[in-house]
Amino acid sequence: MIRLVHGEFTKLRSTRLWLWLLAATMGLTALFASLNIAFNNDPDTLAPPLATAAGQRLLFGTAAGGSQTLVAVLAAIGMAGEYRHRTATTTFLITPRRAGVVVAKLITYALVGATYAAASIAVVIAIGEPWLSARGIDLTLNRSGIPATMAGVVAAVAAFALLGVGLGALLRDQVAAVVGLLVYLFVAEPIVTRIPALQDWTVFLPGPSASALTQITLTDQDFLQPWQGGVVLAGYALVVASAGAWRTNRLDLT
Amino acid sequence: MVSHPGIEVRGLSKDFGSVRAVDDLTFSVSPGTVTGFLGRNGAGKTTTLRMLLGLVRPDRGTATIGGRAYRDLPAPPTQVGAALDSSGFHPARSGRAHLRVYCRVIGLPTHRADEVLDLVGLSLAGSRRVGGYSLGMRQRLALAVALLGDPQVLVLDEPANGLDPDGIVWIRRLLRDLAAKGRTVLVSSHVLTEMQQLVDRVVIIEGGRLRYDGALSDLAGRQGAVVEVRTRQAIELRAALSGRPGVTLDQDDTGRLLVGGLDPAAVGRVAFAAGVELEWLAQRDGDLERLFFYLTAGTASGRRLSDAAEAGTR
Asked: Which of chain B's residues have a Cβ under 8 Å away from the Cβ of A16?
């Protein structure tokens, strides 16, 4: 398994997609964090003031928003790309026990996701620290709830990586997997979660579950307890990844 | 590790929807031989090879290498090397990086990638992106992947497809070298002439069914080398030759007499004894290409030579 994971990292490093998506992730996080800080003084904002722990947790939560989607996209391409470029034939010749390949990709992209999340958190600190200190506010990393939010960001992004790999294995079509992910996360989920009558149910969707992990949301929707969110998100990852591995194993590669 | 594993295909069948791609196919490949796996495009060759390699699930039957299914072999790529798809590369990845990925997974040192690049003549192109490779270069890279684990058995699907004449000569030489080192090679093609100087045995399929399994020389012998004769005294010569045991007489479109079962010297002696003057006397080798065409044609036109096919089937 270590060799398989090593192979997956070699695959990832041998093209530049990871670099572009890392740059995009960090850029997106920088944008979210800047907007958050710039408009925090706005009297209409729902956000708690940045001088409070809650306000700073919200700031760190933007790192997850920047990373989640792009890491899921990277992971989906990492899996479905094997079919798109027909490398699946060679990959499954070298490793005929195909579930091993899927598991290696799950491990690889979870680690990559955690790394992207860490990079995004670093971006938040790099932007927030000087900007807030100019306003006379201390960005305190060990303040109440902030380490938990950071851990939640890393866990949520890693879970989205698992979802991405699983979705790629299930759909096998790279474009369908990526478009499906984006449509779900940016269109379907935001619409459904804004319907008050459904809130009892929508808290269990992947996006709100990730919010539960970080205890942060940029909207006013409800979310579960962190551990509940973690369990739900892990459940999604497990179900989608298992289904993907099962499908991969049964597939006729013609 | 099995030192000299052979390939056994037993009753292999596969349907794709309503199409029977492979139909109760049985053949074996002896260790240390080069076997040509022949048939027209769509005859079921690729599906058979993919079932042998665990990529496609058979509906019925088994395919084993050294007595085991491919996926049950310990460290499969070090025992069986396969090149099935000359388009299975990420275009943005270099040839060397592609090989290094699989070095990592197999557990080989990464310099093995450079060794096989050298072996297939891609040393200079190794650091270029595969997207810029010609079809011939991609065929070579696919072969390089097959050779990575230094396997005893090679399974190659149309490795000469799309190669220029130089490339075909090159691949023939490479496969002959590998065979000389005792490797077992199963190589598919839809062009018999590509195989003629390369393979010991041929397995010919059509419509997913076995049409011939045996030595290439037997196949040639069966169709028979014939002696071409041109003479103004064809009637006298026919009379002199007819009735001899094992001798067949036929005539081609240009009016030449085709004599089977005798060598040119014997035909010459008979003609001399009968006082027949010959204008042309030549050995015509077994017309493999024509035989192959009949063997692989649909049942209607294949009928004429179905006797030959059945006689050759064990």
From this structure: 92
Q: Which of A147-152's residues contact partners 24+ apart within 8 Å by CB, and which partners?
A: A148/A215, A148/A226, A149/A57, A149/A60, A149/A61, A149/A214, A149/A215, A149/A216, A150/A60, A150/A121, A152/A64, A152/A213, A152/A214, A152/A215, A152/A216, A152/A226
* Average predicted confidence (pLDDT) for chain A: 86
Looking at chain B, the whole-number percentage of residues with pLDDT higher than 70 is: 88
Beta pairing class for B201-206 and B34-38? parallel
List chain B residues with CB under 8 Å of A252: 50, 55-57
Name the pLDDT band for B4 (thresholds 50, 70, 90).
Answer: low
pLDDT tops 80 at residue B310: no
Query: Can you read off the two tokens belonging to residue A140?
Result: 């305190």
Tokens found for residue B208: 């997913």
- Inter-chain residue contact B90 with A88, CB threshold 8 Å: no
List, in sequence order, the alpha helices (H) in B73-230.
Answer: 95-106, 111-119, 135-147, 165-180, 192-195, 216-223
| C-alpha dihedral sign at B185, B189, B195, B200 | positive
CA distance A174 to chain B (A): 13
Amino acid letter, residue B261: G
Window 105-164 of B: residues touching A by CB (8 A cutoff) are 105-107, 145
ipTM topping 0.85: no
Interval B80-99: pLDDT, tens: 999 998 888 999 999 999 99
Do B135 and B150 form a contact (C-beta atoms < 8 A)?
no
Q: Which residues from B are below 8 Å from A20, CB to CB?
A: none
Contact across the interface for B57 and A250, Cβ inside 8 Å: yes
Distance from CA of B195 to the nearest CA of A (A): 24
| CB contacts, 8 Å: B53 with chain A | 93, 96
Query: CA distances (Å), A144 to each of A54, A149, B156, in order?
Result: 9, 10, 63
Domains of chain B: 7-220 (3.40.50.300), 226-284 (3.30.70.870)
